[in-house]
Every structure is written in C-alpha cells, then in structure tokens.
Amino acid sequence: MSLAERLRVTADTAARHRRIIWALSLRELATRYGRENLGFLWVIGEPLLFCGAVSILWSVIRPPYEHGIRIVPFVVTGYMPILLVRHILAHGMYAVRVNAPLLYHRQISVLHLFFARSLVEFIGVTFAFIVIFCILAPFGLISPPLKLHLVYAGWFLLAWISFGLALIFGALFEIFEPIERFVQVITYILVPLSGTFYMAAWIPPQFRGYVLLLPFINTVEMVRGGFFGEFVQTYYNVPYTLSWAAGLTLLGLVLTAFIRDRVLVE
Fold first, then answer.
1. Could you tell me the pTM of the whole model?
2. Which residues lie below 8 Å from residue 233, measured CB to CB, with a gap of 6+?
3. Would you list the DSSP string of 89-127?
4. What pLDDT was estimated at residue 265?
C-alpha cells in the first residue's frame, strides 16, 4: 500500500470516528436535556449558574481585592476549571453504564462513549466560561486574557487530565460499583486541593513544591497566568502536567480494554 493510500485510509477512519462521536454527543444531549424549551442550553446554563452564584457570593463576603487580584476574575478563573473536572469525571464515569446497549453495534466502541460524554461536558463548561466572561467584561469586572495561548494550554490540559480520570473511574465502576462513592469524595476534596481559591505564590516556599505535585494546580496556574499575565506570579510545569495527562489516559485505556466484553456478557 502506497503512502497516499495509507493517508487516505487513515483520513477515512478518522472521519468515521468523528461522525460516530458527534452522533453520540447529539444523542447524549437529546436524552439528557430533551428537545423542547431550553433543552441542550442547560449543558451551558448549569455550570454558568454555579459559577455565577459563587462569584456573587465571594464578591459580597470578601474584599474587592485578594492579594492584589480582583476577586471576581480570581474566582471565575479558579472555579470554572474545577467545574470542568467535576463535570467530565462525574458524567464520564457513567458513560458505559447508561449507554451499554449501544455497544451491540459493532462500529461503536467503549472509547466512543467516553469521548462523546466528555465532549458534551467540555463544550458545555467551555461555553459557560465564555458566556460568563462576556457578561462580566462590559461591566469592567474581568479583563481579556493577556496571554490567550496560556489559557488555552491550561484549559485543554485540564480537560485531558479529566478525560483520563473519567476513563479510569468509568472502567473501575463497571468492575466495582462502590467506587462511585469514592469518586464523590474525590470531587469534593478537589475543591481545596485544585488551587480554586488560592494561588501557588501564596503558599510558603518550603511547601510550594509539594503542592505543585498536584497536576490540577499547574493547569489552574496556567489559566490564571494567561488572564493576569505579569501582574501575578504563577508556578507551573508543562512537561510534568503533560506526563500526568498521558499517564492517566494510558492507564484508563488499559482498564477500558476489559470493559466491552464484560458489559456485553452481562
């Protein structure tokens, strides 16, 4: 087979997978939110309402500035990332359980189910982030990012890590159902551990290195570094965070390799 033919086959395969994932994503929206009234807009509205409520609460109970940073953009750039993790992990974990009958179609794989569910949550939280920015910006409550590429890098890295976690816990859930309770605890613990309401620069230097071992904090620092630029001191390690994302995904792929046959047998 010539190089041109191989490239054509690869492109056709990629296009087929893309169509399957997109169709599953649309099905996910329709079955979860319905086709009437607000429908699929709730995938954006839900994280938007959560972040809006937290931002309003913090702006009322806290001073306008925290360590020289305006409180509203500080909360938004910290709370939206944790919402991304929680949504992808919480919904992705049930990707196989709620869509198991679809696996009887030979073209649909377990990975398609995970990709589709994660894509829906990623798009929803991302658009919620954009919408809340567009609402706050005209009032001068948040400024445009100074390093947009850094925001993109942190956001997509966090989504990749979240997808890896969804693969791992989704596969484990099919093997050992009580893992569901463990995941609920993790999502709550992530709030104080993810850097949502603090920055690495605020941590004493002797402890900062230990805190930055958590990949979530690295991504949140990247997002905030992209928004605030040189006005804040941020700490992050891109290769280290990439290694976490790749490692979690690899472990998730290994675990999901055993899921399809198990689900079909049941």
1. 0.88
2. 199, 201
3. HHHHTTHHHHHGGGGGSTT--HHHHHHHHHHHHHHHHHH
4. 46
